[in-house]
Amino acid sequence: TWETIPNQYQDILFERCDKVAKITINRPEKRNAFTPQTVNEMIDAFAQCRDDETIGVIILTGQGDLAFCSGGDQGVRGNGGYVGSDHIPRLNVLDLQHLIRVIPKPVIAMVRGWSVGGGNVLQLVCDLTIAADNAKFAQSGPKVGSFDGGYGSGLLADTIGIKRAKEVWFTCKTYTADEAFQMGWINKVVPLADVEQETLDWCDVLLQRSPMALRLIKASMNAATDGLAGIQQLAGDSTLLYYTSDEAKEGRDAFLEKRKPNFDQFPKFP
Ligand code: 1HA
Questions:
Q1: What sign does the CA torsion over 100, 60, 113, 91 have?
Q2: CATH architecture of structural domain 211-256
Q3: Which 3 state secondary structure label does DSSP give 128?
Q4: What are the tens digits of pLDDT across the range 1-38?
Q5: I want to staple 266 with a disulfide (CB 3.0 to 4.6 A). Which of 76, 199, 200, 247 is the partner?
Q6: Measured from the CA of 73, which atom of ligand 1 is nearest?
Q7: Cα of 122 to ligand 1 centre, how many Å?
Q8: Nearest CA to ligand 1 atom 46
Q9: What is the pLDDT of residues 127-184, one digit of tens each?
Q10: Fold (topology level) of 3-207
């Protein structure tokens, strides 16, 4: 059973079940389209999950059976981006995509119904995707006057191949869950009624694995695609591990004690 994590969010639900957090876009009347506010709330919730040592896996999903997410809310699209109460046009979902890439815990998209446009890119940047058999996948940008040439294109090409990625974007056609599975776009398709249990079963498996190993595999697999920013993430993980070593502590302690560090005592592995 899910318990609500205390929050002031308006557009999302934020819940946990033991070590699993669930972030649910809660605008079903708009097929879970996002506004800058929705995105800011998701960024805040993901950041909380990142800091919370007791959370091991994060599920991203949409409220109801009809949609995971239909992308940017076209009703608040102004000139230059999506506009919130501060009247500033934003494409802040790009910040959320990046956060999902670098958060050092597995993120699983649980997809029911439509996964479209910027919503489908969110699904793509998640580490794993479990879909219900009613899921439908599409990029709609060239139909509605938009495109995502970042992760939405490059990571899609890495995921399903260049020819398929161009087909998806050029035609804007819709793919069934089974078709998406065949293309290597998603990890698993199950009957709608089983999708949450299936997702939780995957979470249970991941929670039995070494969190540091999962962290390093995620960073390693993202590094090439993300270029120097990806190397930064992976290198930051090396720094983290190095800081836990006696060798690194010797450097810090010698500085604080105003003496020369003695690094000779440490092994030089081949
Ligand atoms: O490309 C980007 C970006 C690129 C770079 C950087 C940032 C980006 C940020 C965002 C995006 C984008 O997301 S562009 C793509 C925007 N999304 C779409 O083009 C999908 C538009 N929606 C649909 O094609 C369809 O609604 C649907 C396939 C998701 C569902 O169809 P269905 O089941 O027939 O329902 P429908 O009647 O169309 O929709 C139900 C209600 O939800 C409608 O409102 P109502 O008439 O009841 O008042 C509908 O207008 C609303 N709705 C659905 N999607 C959106 C939406 N309202 C606003 N924005 C939506 N995206």
A1: negative
A2: Orthogonal Bundle (1.10)
A3: strand
A4: 999 999 999 999 999 999 999 999 999 999 999 999 99
A5: 247
A6: 59
A7: 14
A8: 30
A9: 999 999 999 999 999 999 999 999 999 999 999 999 999 999 999 999 999 999 999 9
A10: 2-enoyl-CoA Hydratase; Chain A, domain 1 (3.90.226)
